[in-house]
């Protein structure tokens, strides 16, 4: 039967009937279970280590509050540390720049980048009354450009007319120019993805970034990526200077470990989460909810 972490920790620490401070021994016993729970939630190993070190530093010597059991006390410390590392406040997409404000969407193929581009465009249009232009920079897959045009029609957002034979940088420049002339507030640039992080992908995205100077660079990542999440996030952040992360497929079985991993290695906020295939399935990120989900 499924047993949540808090029950497990209560059992482990049940012998601790005396009041007083948590000893290193108590904490280490509890941390073995915490470590297991984090790995089950697909938190990357290096992040599990730094997380448990932080919890240990916080828990050893902590006074057990009279009204709670030592197990509950450790669970609270773990939960608080998770929330702190996930980012305490929900962050929003910043449009605080001279329009047209560029938003560069980056990520691996299949992560949900194109869908998320349309979801965010819809949100900016409907909730913030912004005039948004979307452009697909995927020159290798014409179907990707058409996919964005179809989504644009569905959400009532303009897409840049497709011109065959242009490079990603040329399309991006054309999008910024069209937005300037057309009085758009926001330009969303949907870059090409690859199945794995590769050099050509990074070079192209870096060129687009240099040519358009976007205000936000959003990394779209699949919540089910597990241990790879750290490497993906680190690679994109080092090369492109990510400003925020959108985690997709949070409607699935993912326990949300990728959120902690990505946030920990990049320090960049998780701004939104994708919760389904439909264009309105986009929600704000609530650190406390994800912390509970990770704890199981
Ligand atoms: P891209 O290759 O990164 O542009 O990925 P797409 O936007 O084409 O998305 C790939 C698939 O994932 C599509 O079938 C989407 O409908 C689906 N998808 C995207 N975001 C989500 C999400 O948050 N939840 C679920 N369940 N599916 C999603």
What does this protein look like?
It contains 11 helices and 8 strands. The radius of gyration is 22 Å and the shape is elongated. The model has no long low-confidence stretch (mean pLDDT 91). The chain is of the alpha/beta class and 296 residues long. Helix 3 (45-59) crosses helix 4 (70-86), helix 4 (70-86) crosses helix 11 and helix 7 (168-182) runs parallel beside helix 8 (199-212). Bound molecules: guanosine-5'-diphosphate. Guanosine-5'-diphosphate (GDP) binds at residues 107, 109-115, 193, 248-249, 251-252, 274-277, 281. It catalyses: GTP + H2O = GDP + phosphate + H(+).
What is the residue-averaged pLDDT?
Answer: 91
Radius of gyration: 22 Å
User: Which stretches are low in confidence, meaning pLDDT under 50 for 5 or more residues running?
Assistant: none
Number of strands: 8
Percent range of helical residues: 40-55%
SSE order: HHHHEHEHEHEHEHEHEEH
Strand content: 5-15%
Backbone shape:
elongated
Question: Structural class of the secondary structure composition?
Answer: alpha/beta
Number of helices: 11
What ligand molecules are bound, each kind once?
Answer: guanosine-5'-diphosphate
Strand order of the biggest β-sheet = 3-2-4-1-5-6-7-8
Distance from N terminus to C terminus (CA atoms, Å) equals 13 Å
Main sheet summary: 8 strands, mixed
What attributes does this structure have?
296 residues, EC 3.6.5.4, binds guanosine-5'-diphosphate, alpha/beta
